[in-house]
Give the backbone structure.
Amino acid sequence: MENKLKATTDPNMFDSFVEFEGIKLSVDPINRKRTEQEDNVMAIFWEEQPFTWKFVQPYIKEALERSNGQIGFLDVGTGSGIFGILMAKHYNAKVVAVDKSDRAIKIAQENARLNDVDSIKFQHELYSVNSVPESSVKIIGLYPPYHLYPIEIENKVPQHARGGSDGQQEFINQLKIATHHLAKDGIIFFNQMCLGNENGPKFLKYIPELVEGNPSIIYTNVFSPMGTRIFLEGVYGDKHADYVDKISNEYPVLYYIVGIIRKDGKGEVKEVIHSIDLKERSWKDRIKLHYEIAGHEYK
């Protein structure tokens, strides 16, 4: 694949070509027009993929050494292929990359060739218990959609952003499957925006119920938690007031998190403070991003 665009090392939602940690990627900018037949592939944002990669490094190294899984990395919803390519390039890991989008698989394959990576097994399919053998994976990457939206605009939202009205349904669905694939001492790493309250994000309750083996959870707040109402009113303005009221009253705090689920049998929960440079990114940028997503239309 040839791309004559200059790669940026400080990606934002309007970039078409980015560079990070020694790899280059063609990606869909957030404002790319989509059709009913062909959806977009998620753009690259500093606080999402690059931040996640930087945070999970020590956990990746430990899992590759300790876990007895035969597959090094299962890339669920590979999108541009960024995590699978990074795992193959930097850790020489055996990688299986899954995505239900034909466009995503084609872009990820092209990006793998661009980076001289030929060891990734790409599977164009909906992630399921049959995607890989049971208890075979050392590391699973989950980055499902979490955009918050009233159900009546779901068809206007790109598929890569459709996580249900509470933004958690696809994460829950993938966790139910991933628990069958994760080997002993393996990890699941994830990037999620999650509703909650002053006691924390609501995934702290449902992850232990969905992932077998009494897992431990380690997570960091990418940004400090913010009020759900402030975020939703920033995205929708005075539209969908009933939805904003309902969600904000039930879950008044919004978290943006990168986390690790470790299949270690200890059942511990630990919040850690990160020291990763956010390149001046903030919730203000997330509101702009979700405003763009909420306004998406087909051609």
In short: The helical segments are 49-66, 82-91, 102-114, 169-181, 203-210, 228-236, 241-250, 283-294. Confidence is low (pLDDT under 50) at residues 1-7. DSSP finds eight helices and eleven strands in the chain. The CA atoms of residues 197 and 253 lie 5 Å apart.
